[in-house]
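note to self: dont lose this again. the chain is below, predicted strucutre after it. 117 aa total, dont forget to put it in the shared folder this time
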Amino acid sequence: QVQLVESGGGLVQAGGSLRVSCATSRSIFSLATMGWYRQAPGKQRELVATTTSGGRTNYADSVKDRFTISRDNAKNTVYLQMNSLKPEDTAVYYCHAESSLFSRDYWGQGTQVTVSS
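---
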């Protein structure tokens, strides 16, 4: 059963923008730290950004000032707005939820983001 549903990946030219979304259930979303990770071919999965239930955000140095994570509590959805994209941002982007309510975490199926030079 898919708990986190991602959408919005695709192909974009360098310098362009994309927004990816991740929707889940209220029970998972509430009190959860939501985040985005990415994995490029041949590389380990890495943290991109997180946002706590209180709205505190954290970013990888490589995406600071270019990416913005946000959450819509009414829609149980977290977004990652990606601007000034670079070819090195090419990866599969995964949504992650660390649920305080269920004391476990969840992963989405991943969405491909490809940035052409």
